[in-house]
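G., the chain you wanted modeled:
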Amino acid sequence: MKTTKKIMMVCCLMVLAATSYGQIQPWTHYSPWTGYDFSTECETGQTLYYRIIDSVNYEVALTHPAPYSYVTLDYWEGYDKPVGDIVFPSEVTYEGQTYTVTVIDDGTFRQCGGMTGTLVIPNTVTFIGYYAFDGCYRFTGSLEIPDGVTIIGRMAFNSMSEITSVSIPNSVVAIGEKAFASFWKITSLWIPESVTYLAPGAFWACEKLVTLEVDENNPVYYSESNAVIERETKRLVQATKTTVIPEDITIIGAMAFEAVENKGNLVIPQSVISIEDEAFKYAHFTGTLNLPENLEYIGEYAFYFSYCTGALYIPDGVSFIGEYTFTNSGFSEIHLPKSLKTIEGNTFYNCTRLEMVEIQSEVDSIGSGVFQYCNRLNCLKVHCEVPPECWYSAFSGVSRDIPVHIPVGTLADYQSAPYWNEFTNFIEDGLMSVDESEASHIQISVYPNPAKDFVRIEGTKAAEVQVYNAVGQLVKTVQGSNEIDMSSLAEGIYLLRITDVDGKNYTARLVVKE
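Predicted structure as tokens:
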């Protein structure tokens, strides 16, 4: 029953993650583009293109003249792009009939980087499509979205890096993914009451953004610690460089901290159960990463290019870690949980500081490129009685001479298993095969932990204690004592294998600090 509930919970978290990542949007494109109907010169002399979208109410969309080009990455191939200061009309006349401009089509001015001055959107516009002004990086000053606009599409204003402020009116209902990405000069934003859908990464890479507030009457979102939070789910949707994650957050949303120029340690509250795709991608937190004990789900690219270092212990309870989650990260040790069955592709790809990996007994599959190019890896501890199925590139770039600790009695299986049989230094280690259920009714403890000198074992009478360092080397053995002198050992993480007077075995993890 517990396993069934766990699977159902993870499935729900994956659905929530997919929803938040913009795969389910509250709008679609305004209407399919089939070409423009007419063109006219605006008052500043540039030729603009229009298509009629309502012949009864005489409404048109500002549009692009050509289909999308995969060469130029825009919609103007073969046409002169508008350049210089420009005034967009609110009305145009065609064949004696006056039309109102109510829509700016998807991609209309994409990569039209020659337009300059202040961007003034006609106050008749109600819909701004995907990529509408993507790459129009020479507009400057303030960007005021007209009152009446309801939809701002995906990447509508992406990379308008010279804009210094943005005003969003209380008519906007939905803001698409990366709609205001790479606005490098804005420092504050106000989300009005009307916004009921804020896509992931709406303010992606706004590196100077420090103040982010939501109208207190907004029914879907609220703000705390300069972050936007979804009321019902307690999902943190968008953070800033000044955000401290509140204690009651349950979900770190997709792209919430992506490309946010954070510094210092990352503190994730114990309340968090899900970290969605790209949540901390390119976020520059440093120090050790302590994941919350109740965590169950870590999405793709969640900690991609993390600056965090030291040992990473993934909590028992995490049953899904997405592809590329910790790629290019600075961890020196990885300890995977028993709750994890599959290590997805490229999870620890190119972690060039990684020295030791511990894989628990329930893992049955290691995907493509998981530890590829982890060229400092010098110790594997594999608790699996059955060798996990490996993709051919799982350990590409890793020396095959490193010690691989495996459970006693499994050597022949590993030596015959595809890709495992390339390793040459297997060590059958009793530490890998301790029967924990044998003494599960007895609670032991080792304290103090962390320790500087002496530690004491409580809960059983020790006959022998073996101390192993992080790379699996036996560094100390103590006979017949529950007190261990650790003062001669270097700072780091150690494993204690304790055999009591009745022959039962226990393991304990200990941190030694100088």
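The mean pLDDT is 89.

Shout if anything looks off.
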